[in-house]
């Protein structure tokens, strides 16, 4: 529950709280709360500042856009500021936005362009004479990091646009990571005892800030463009921008994923259609963006604080369910890392039945205060991986869970190095490590051996037919 600000101290405390979450989100790429919870904190700041303008702090997060610039990168100023959108979560809030546009533009026949709200990291890419010359992150909205070498690793991004390109074209887009790539990377990180990425968005943002573009290339990042910041080509319709960029060979959303709407009813018909398709998309979205289609009105509409008035984001609330933890088991990875796993009472969530959820490591179990028998809330982190959000009811007389002192497979005493979260089995001959190693070896990320899935590998090991990769080929 969000604390209501009653005093100046409450206000300053909430500023510190929001700044802490900004640091976790933007700088460390390790958010501890959901976007929805964060937005509610910011809205409470905005409410207090609107009612008490004389108390507004100069360093309030409501006045700042995005993140700080990063060490190791040169910076560049945005000729056109990269602002962040205001968020809405209900039909009433969207109706209020539409009413404001009617009032500010002095008419009710306003057309809106609705499009996907990509859940990635925003960038500005500049072409001159058809050639890619620079890519810059959003940064503070005024100045960002130059990440041209990293952006060039994206396979769908052309280095040259051809003869039809304007002399100057600066475009805005979203760098993202596909759901599959995200799963593969997190699986490898878990096996190596590293912290997992919270969602594809944070994985993309963290990847874009790597200092080695060779390492960035391994992350298989992708990009979609949706806006023009500067061009000598006159285009006055946001809807037409998508088509124009597509003709130039730039990656944009599929045509069925943006639409013209003339009313709140049409906006929500589009939003409902997108929400139903959400699970089938190969990338992550967290809502839809609603923009006034007539670009020539943007200057007149202006901005409020760090957000433009012409557009808002309508964000989908995360789907959550309550279920029971029936047991906590421990899985031994190929590198010997022990991972606690919540065995759940089966529950339906976002189109699939969930029976298990990783608890990552012992520290995470302690942070969430999880016990066997607890009732918990789960959601799909990044709509991909089942994630325990919090405990809603602790089982009476339940004992705190502890990581076993011995490997559950080979019974060797486990070790935990100082400064690491990972607990490992040091036994090089541990059959649990062998199993995970062989499963990884035959998986799509490695040798991609057809028909050699996890269950088959388990059976072959149990029958003594394989114990190392070369045995697969001998067999």
What does this 3D model show about the protein?
The protein has helices at 8-27, 35-51, 91-105, 148-151, 179-191, 200-208, 213-217, 238-247, 264-277, 298-301, 362-368, 431-442, 454-462, 469-474, and strands at residues 75-77, 86-88, 112-118, 121-128, 131-137, 143-145, 168-176, 222-231, 258-261, 285-292, 303-304, 307-308, 311-315, 320-332, 338-349, 352-358, 375-381, 385-393. With 475 residues, the chain is α+β, with helices and mostly antiparallel strands. It folds into four domains: 8-63, Orthogonal Bundle (Helix Hairpins), CATH 1.10.287.610; 75-315, D-amino Acid Aminotransferase, Chain A, domain 1, CATH 3.30.470; 318-423, Nucleic acid-binding proteins (OB fold (Dihydrolipoamide Acetyltransferase, E2P), Beta Barrel); 431-474, DNA polymerase, domain 1 (Orthogonal Bundle). The strands form five sheets. It has a five-stranded mixed β-sheet with strand order 2-13-10-3-9, covered by helices on one side. A five-stranded antiparallel β-sheet has the order 16-15-14-17-18. A four-stranded antiparallel β-sheet has the order 5-4-7-8. Strand 11 (303-304) and strand 12 (307-308) form a beta hairpin. The longest helix has 20 residues, at 8-27. The termini are far apart.
């Amino acid at each position: 529950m969000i604390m209501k600000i009653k005093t100046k101290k409450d206000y300053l405390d909430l500023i510190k709280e929001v700044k802490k979450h900004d640091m976790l989100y933007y700088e460390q790429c390790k958010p501890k709360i959901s976007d929805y919870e964060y937005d509610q904190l910011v809205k409470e700041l905005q409410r207090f500042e609107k009612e008490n303008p004389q108390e507004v702090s100069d360093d309030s997060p409501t006045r700042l856009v995005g993140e700080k610039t990063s060490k190791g990168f040169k910076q560049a100023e945005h000729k056109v500021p990269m602002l962040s959108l205001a968020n809405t979560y209900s039909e009433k809030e969207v109706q209020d936005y539409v009413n404001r546009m009617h009032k500010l533009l002095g008419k009710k026949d306003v057309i809106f362009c609705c499009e996907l709200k990509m859940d990635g990291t925003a960038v500005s890419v500049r072409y001159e004479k058809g050639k890619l010359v620079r890519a810059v992150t959003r940064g503070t909205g005024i100045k960002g990091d130059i990440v041209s070498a990293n952006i060039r690793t994206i396979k769908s991004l052309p280095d040259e646009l051809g003869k039809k390109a304007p002399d100057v074209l600066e475009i805005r887009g979203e760098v993202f990571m596909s759901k599959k790539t995200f799963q593969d990377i997190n699986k490898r990180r878990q096996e190596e005892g590293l912290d997992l990425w919270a969602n594809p968005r944070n994985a993309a943002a963290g990847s874009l800030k790597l200092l080695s573009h060779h390492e960035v290339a391994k992350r298989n990042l992708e990009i979609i463009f949706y806006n023009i910041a500067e061009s000598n080509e006159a285009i006055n319709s946001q809807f037409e921008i998508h088509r124009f960029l597509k003709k130039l060979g730039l990656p944009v959303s599929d045509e069925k994923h943006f639409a013209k709407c003339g009313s709140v009813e049409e906006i929500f018909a589009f939003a409902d259609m997108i929400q139903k398709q959400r699970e089938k998309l190969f990338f992550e979205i967290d809502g839809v963006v609603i923009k006034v289609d007539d670009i020539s009105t943007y200057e007149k509409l202006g901005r409020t604080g760090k957000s433009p008035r012409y557009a808002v984001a309508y964000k989908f609330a995360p789907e959550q369910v309550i279920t029971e933890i029936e047991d906590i088991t421990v899985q031994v990875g190929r590198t010997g890392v022990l991972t606690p796993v919540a065995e759940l009472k089966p529950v339906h969530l976002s189109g699939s039945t969930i029976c298990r959820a990783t608890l990552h490591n012992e520290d995470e179990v302690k942070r969430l205060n999880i016990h066997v028998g607890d009732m918990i809330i789960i959601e799909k982190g990044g709509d991909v991986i089942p994630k325990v959000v919090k405990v809603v009811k602790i089982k009476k007389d339940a004992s705190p869970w502890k990581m076993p002192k011995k490997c559950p497979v080979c019974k060797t005493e486990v070790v935990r190095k100082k400064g690491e979260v990972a607990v490992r089995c040091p036994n090089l001959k541990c059959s649990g490590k062998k199993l995970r190693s062989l499963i990884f070896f035959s998986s799509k990320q490695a040798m991609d051996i057809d028909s050699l899935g996890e269950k088959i590998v388990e059976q072959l090991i149990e029958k003594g037919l394989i114990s190392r990769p070369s045995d697969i080929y001998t067999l």
